[in-house]
């Protein structure tokens, strides 16, 4: 089954209004997720409404497999396919700079591979000059790493901030209140909208059967990423605040956070790629498959190369693995503003806006 939704914005909005009108008349899926109360509260739909509903949708696909009007019915209602395309259009419209977003979404695998190999080769060449320190710093000095990675981290943050600002304005976001932010974070942490509203799980990879595998994989990646970020932050505090540079022992905070975090990210990303291979392809936007797979692969490879580097500490493999790991990390950061890293940014904004509307 395939749904070729147009990237023509007026045509996409017209198709969305047609399907939303049918859903508003039926209302069978009213309790499935936050998309439906937001949809049913409207009688007309502007582009901003479509953008907000698209970000609220977690593509659990429960509504599609429950819908009596889904293909082959002549009404051809397929909200997951429609909203997947609408998400892509929204992300590319708000991304800054926009041409880079389109390039990564269409050619993500090739761009990610070129960046990893190219930047990795550059780090390999730099490591031949040697560093000043122990462990990894024997191959590349701490000062060189800071000089390279600081702008590579700050520039993507700026791009993501510009993108989030543009999106928040379009969906009519009100001034932030801690209560609404807390509600949105709680929903995101539990992946509430990935359960079909019933807590039974997702229909993503098993069609009309429920599964929690995708939820667990997402949470493994998310919590693993936060643990690894915490490990980096702890290492920074130890280095600058306590004059205790790396390498750190196994029972130190950077290792206690980084090792389980890396393992969780590796298995979570691998599981997401495997589940994607089992899912019905027509219910996602096939034109962005390269970018989606590239982002997930980069996420898992970042963690996997970090674990391999730790295992190879002190061996002859340390230098090439360091180059590969740093190349992967840099590629991950450089592509973040135009990859699915905008995914949680837009979703959190939509969840906050939903919390704001609920109090009206």
TrEMBL record:
Coiled coil: none annotated. The keyword Protein transport does not apply. The chain crosses the membrane at residues 109-130, 136-161, 220-242, 257-275, 295-313, 319-338. Keywords: Membrane, Transmembrane, Transmembrane helix. The keyword Membrane applies. This is Citrate/tricarballylate utilization protein. It comes from Meinhardsimonia xiamenensis. The lineage of its organism: Bacteria, Pseudomonadati, Pseudomonadota, Alphaproteobacteria, Rhodobacterales.
């Amino acid at each position: 089954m395939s749904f070729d939704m147009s990237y023509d914005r007026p045509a996409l909005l017209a198709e969305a209004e047609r399907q939303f009108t049918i859903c508003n008349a039926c209302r069978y899926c009213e309790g499935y997720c936050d998309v439906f109360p937001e949809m049913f509260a409207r009688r007309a739909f502007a582009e901003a409404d479509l953008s907000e509903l698209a970000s609220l949708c977690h593509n659990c696909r429960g509504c599609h497999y429950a819908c009596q009007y889904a293909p082959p019915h002549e009404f051809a209602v397929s909200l997951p396919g429609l909203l997947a395309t609408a998400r892509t259009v929204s992300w590319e419209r708000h991304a800054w700079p926009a041409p880079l977003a389109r390039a990564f979404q269409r050619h993500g695998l090739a761009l990610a591979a070129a960046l990893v190999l190219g930047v990795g080769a550059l780090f390999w060449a730099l490591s031949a000059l040697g560093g000043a320190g122990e462990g990894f710093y024997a191959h590349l000095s701490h000062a060189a790493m800071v000089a390279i990675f600081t702008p590579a981290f700050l520039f993507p943050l700026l791009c993501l901030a510009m993108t989030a600002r543009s999106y928040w304005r379009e969906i009519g976001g009100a001034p932030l209140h801690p209560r609404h932010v807390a509600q949105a974070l709680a929903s995101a942490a539990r992946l509430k909208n990935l359960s079909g509203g019933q807590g039974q799980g997702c229909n993503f990879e098993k069609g009309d059967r429920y599964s929690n595998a995708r939820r667990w994989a997402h949470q493994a990646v998310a919590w693993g990423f936060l643990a690894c970020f915490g490990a980096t932050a702890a290492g920074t505090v130890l280095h600058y605040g306590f004059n205790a540079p790396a390498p750190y022992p196994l029972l130190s905070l950077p290792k206690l956070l980084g090792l389980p975090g890396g393992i969780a990210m590796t298995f979570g990303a691998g599981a997401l790629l495997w589940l994607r291979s089992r899912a019905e392809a027509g219910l996602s936007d096939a034109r962005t498959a390269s970018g989606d797979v590239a982002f997930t692969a980069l996420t898992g490879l970042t963690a996997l190369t970090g674990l391999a580097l730790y295992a190879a500490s002190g061996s002859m493999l340390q230098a090439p693995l360091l180059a590969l790991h740093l190349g992967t990390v840099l590629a991950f950061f450089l592509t973040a503003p135009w990859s699915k890293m905008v995914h949680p940014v837009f979703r959190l904004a939509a969840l906050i806006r939903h919390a704001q509307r609920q109090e009206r």
